[in-house]
């Protein structure tokens, strides 16, 4: 017996090619009459690097400044995600109704994808992977492979085009 898919988690890094994988998430949702939850994870490792470099450029945050910057970053990402969704479903307005939620999370991408898939009761995960060759293997190993090693639900890993 096949499992019913009612909710799809689409994990995106907002790269130019991520629209390609988004198309698969929307098509999957259409075939199963499912909802799509869009997730972007702010990589905790990248945040640590930004904080470290901030010290080198003599940046001294004022009280509450960090929280304000984080709120602005979240709002900017939410706007970019909304624009991304609108742009990629413009030809098929019915598809726009499939996206029911936009989530922004902070942490290690693979951990957050797995956590959100469970928290949001998603039945499948769609995510892209970049390029070909050695670079692809290192990226694939860093996020998609970690998700695949620990997940207990279907995952669709979409190879993204090079262009």
Automatic annotation (TrEMBL):
SUPFAM superfamilies: Adenine nucleotide alpha hydrolases-like. InterPro entries: Rossmann-like_a/b/a_fold, Universal_stress_UspA, UspA. CDD domains: USP-like. Residues 5-159 form the UspA domain. Belongs to the universal stress protein A family. This is Universal stress protein. It comes from Desulfosarcina alkanivorans. The gene is usp-2.
């Amino acid at each position: 017996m096949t499992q019913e898919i009612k909710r799809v988690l689409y994990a995106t890094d907002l790269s130019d090619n991520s629209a390609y994988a988004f198309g698969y998430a929307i098509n999957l949702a259409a075939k199963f009459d499912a909802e799509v939850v869009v997730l972007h994870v702010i990589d905790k490792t990248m945040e640590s690097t930004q904080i470290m470099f901030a010290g080198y450029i003599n940046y001294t945050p004022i009280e509450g400044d960090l929280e304000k910057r984080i709120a602005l970053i979240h709002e900017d990402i939410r706007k970019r995600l909304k624009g991304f969704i609108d742009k990629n479903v413009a030809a098929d307005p019915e598809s726009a109704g499939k996206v029911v939620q936009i989530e922004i999370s902070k942490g290690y991408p693979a951990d957050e994808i797995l956590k959100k898939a469970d928290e949001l009761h998603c039945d499948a995960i769609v995510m892209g992977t970049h390029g070909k060759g050695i670079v692809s293997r290192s990226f694939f190993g860093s996020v998609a492979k970690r998700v695949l090693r620990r997940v207990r639900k279907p995952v669709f890993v979409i190879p993204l085009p090079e262009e």
